[in-house]
């Protein structure tokens, strides 16, 4: 058995459109894993399990088109001038992990390569959608729409509780 400490950082920013609203989105995949490797065939193949300290989050902000109507979960909202929408999804801090991989577990000096494929269980995220209106008289309608859209987002993200993990690496031992 071997114990490994692994970390990964990926930040991705993009602009996208959902139901007529243009968003600026940020995806942050940041984690550190403590894994135990079992080598059933000496040093090359491994089966791994452990826990990932997870800091995966997604956020987006957008401006709506004035006069457009938006519907979610049976609730319709008509956008007003100055309306802004934002949303985010955050996952649990701990995620179990299982995977398989190839790579040398040898203590021999030299260059070696590794590759791993596994699954991290993220679970259901906490989601938030907010709409801020320029007109206070429209805020209650905006809040009802945001609550419905938040429920839709949570239901959609619940389909992605398992997250694939692919790692490719190189190690040099002196």
Describe this structure in words.
This protein is mostly beta strands and 174 residues long. Strand 7 and strand 8 form a beta hairpin. The relative contact order is 0.19.
- Largest sheet, described in full? 8 strands, antiparallel
Strand content: over 45%
For the terminal residues, how far apart are their CA atoms? 22 Å
- Structural class call reads mainly beta
Shape: elongated
How many helices does DSSP assign?
A: 1
List unreliable stretches of 5+ residues: none
Average residue pLDDT: 86
Helix residue percentage:
10-25%
What series of H and E elements makes up the topology?
Answer: EEEEEEEEEHE
Q: What's the number of extended β-strand segments? A: 10
Radius of gyration: 22 Å
Write the layout of secondary structure elements.
Layout: E1 2-18, E2 21-38, E3 45-63, E4 69-72, E5 75-78, E6 84-90, E7 94-103, E8 110-121, E9 126-132, H1 139-157, E10 162-173
């Amino acid at each position: 058995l071997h114990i490994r400490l692994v970390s990964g950082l990926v930040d991705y920013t993009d602009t996208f459109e959902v139901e007529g609203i243009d968003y600026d989105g940020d995806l942050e995949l940041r984690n550190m894993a403590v894994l135990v490797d079992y080598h059933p065939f000496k040093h090359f193949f491994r089966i791994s399990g452990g826990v990932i300290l997870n800091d995966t989050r997604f956020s987006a902000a957008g401006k709506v088109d004035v006069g457009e109507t938006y519907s979610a979960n049976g609730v319709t909202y008509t956008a007003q001038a100055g309306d802004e929408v934002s949303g985010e999804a955050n996952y649990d801090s701990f995620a179990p992990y299982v995977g398989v991989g190839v790579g040398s577990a040898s203590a021999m000096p030299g260059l070696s390569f590794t590759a791993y494929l596994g699954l991290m269980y993220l679970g259901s995220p906490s989601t938030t959608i907010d709409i801020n209106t320029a007109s206070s008289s429209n805020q209650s309608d905006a809040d009802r729409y945001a609550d419905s859209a938040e429920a839709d987002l949570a239901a959609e993200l619940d389909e992605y509780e398992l997250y694939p993990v692919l790692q490719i690496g190189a190690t040099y031992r002196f």
